[in-house]
Amino acid sequence: MNETADTATPATDPAAPPPAACRNCGSTLHGPHCYACGQPVKGLVRPLGNLFGDLMDSVFNIDTRVLRTIPPLFAKPGFLTTEYFAGRQVRYVTPVRLFFFLCILAFFVARLAIDSGDGLDVNINDPEAGEIGAAMTEAEVIVRRDAALKRFNDAKAKIPDSPGKGGAEVGFDVQADQARSTAETRIKQLRDAAAKGEPAPAAMDDTFSFGKNGAWDEKKNPVHVPGAPKFVDGWFNQKIGRAKQNIKRIKAEPAQYVETFVSSIPTALFVLVPIFALMLKLVYAFKRRLYMEHLVVSLHSHAFLSLNLLLVFACMALQRLVPANGLATDLLGWCIGLLITWMPIYLLLMQKRVYGQGWPMTLLKYFALGTAYMTLLGFAISGAAIASLVWM
């Protein structure tokens, strides 16, 4: 009987500690996370040295994956995407994190490259030319208008020759249109006063004009969006007022506008990623792939574009550091040209490798997608440029 009792009740060490329990739900812990509620064993309330060690471990873990991800992303079109579809995912940086990291880094370097240039320090508000609305004769209005238009064109010419330059020019085009509109309004005021035999009217304030409704005013002459409720009209006119104030800031600090514009481009690209995935879904409808698969293709495509732009902006920044008209400048110029040329070639090869269609259909779909995407990109960049007038 003693032998039976010993078998039924195994001996336990009375000195052994009880198993650890989750502090949230009380379940027995079997690892670094609770299997019942998911709470991690390690919280933030612990020595700072431990937290720093975990942070460094995470960073170095990401770094090892970056070293395996960046080279094929740049040099092997479609490789990362096919690896992802094949189930080999943990060894590489995830598509979302990869695109987010490279996009933000690329345009951070772009801001540094643009800020380091001396060509954007343009004084648009030339005191010798004066304000158009303060001119007292028609001839003086024309002289000041032409001088203002010349300054805007000079400022546009000094924007760095880089991707997105066309969008950055939109702000200066808006100012040029405003200068022409102000000149027309001032000339009409002077002519009406002369016809009545009255002296020239007082200097006019800066105004916005929309269509034939005359000068914009948030209270007296607001813009009405057809079919929109009252609160939408209020919001829209408030933003117009902010843009009007910011145009005065652009006259004094054009570089600040370009910086704000460059900062807004990543947001535009984030919006285009899911749209481009939808375009791929429509073009390759007979492939019966899930939308999420096309989204992975879109994320890897935009991650490559961000990486390529990062290298372009880095070369532009280096050009400012090396002696002008030297061998290094020429080599960097060649590098920029090759990087820009590699973009469409890479995307074509990637599309061919991922979707596996013949060259005739791949080329047809590539050019159709490219045309539609460049149109959307133009709208996105122009929208970013106009939004910069409001949010700067």
Features:
DUF3667 domain-containing protein, 12 helices, transmembrane, 392 residues, DUF3667, single chain, transmembrane helix
Notes on the structure:
This protein has 392 residues and is mainly α. Among the domains are: 132-255, no CATH class; 264-391, no CATH class. The protein contains twelve helices and no strands. The chain has helices at 2-8, 48-75, 79-85, 95-115, 138-157, 165-168, 170-195, 230-252, 254-283, 291-321, 327-355, 359-391. The protein is extended and about 110 Å long. It starts with a helix and ends with a helix.
Strand residues, percent: under 5%
Radius of gyration: 31 Å
Structural class assignment: mainly alpha
What portion of residues is helical?
55-70%
The major sheet is characterized as: none
Mean pLDDT: 79
The number of helical runs is 12
Unreliable stretches covering 5 or more consecutive residues: 116-129
Terminal CA distance reads: 88 Å
The beta-strand count equals: 0
From N to C, what is the helix and strand string? HHHHHHHHHHHH
Short summary of the structure?
This is DUF3667 domain-containing protein. By secondary structure, the chain is an all-alpha fold.
Task: Describe the protein's topology.
Blueprint: H1 2-8, H2 48-75, H3 79-85, H4 95-115, H5 138-157, H6 165-168, H7 170-195, H8 230-252, H9 254-283, H10 291-321, H11 327-355, H12 359-391
Transmembrane segments: 96-114, 261-283, 295-319, 331-349, 370-391
Keywords: Membrane, Transmembrane, Transmembrane helix
Protein name: DUF3667 domain-containing protein
